[in-house]
Specification:
Length: 115
């Protein structure tokens, strides 16, 4: 895994997707500053102790935060509010990164989950 792979992924995006995911990257690294950065399943991912704890991705009509767990989002259902999500992806609009406090709670939930 390499941070350069994430740099390449982000540089290929148009605005505001690029700057929003760059900010999400910073917010994730605020929580897990020593995370190993690279690509997983074709999208930027962040690993702690060999375990992927967060991912981010750009799609045509939205951006996604990926907890790499089927249980994290359901465990934080109330905190997600009206944000659209599936079992494994939290969607958010380009230009609107997730709040720092939510990113922290998502990563902490993943770290606690053991999965």
């Amino acid at each position: 895994m390499s941070a350069a792979e994430i740099d390449a992924y982000l540089s290929s995006l148009a605005e505001p997707q690029r700057s929003t995911l760059e900010e999400m990257r910073r917010r994730i690294l605020e929580v897990v500053p020593d995370a190993e950065q690279g690509m997983s399943y074709g999208v930027p991912a962040f690993k702690v102790d060999g375990r992927t704890v967060a991912g981010i991705a750009a799609f045509t009509n939205h951006l996604s935060y990926l907890p790499h767990s089927g249980s994290v989002l359901s465990a934080l259902e109330e905190e997600l509010g009206e944000r659209e999500h599936t079992k494994s992806a939290l969607h958010f609009p380009p230009g609107e990164p997730l709040p720092r406090s939510l990113v922290r709670r998502l990563i902490e939930a993943k770290l606690r989950s053991g999965g």
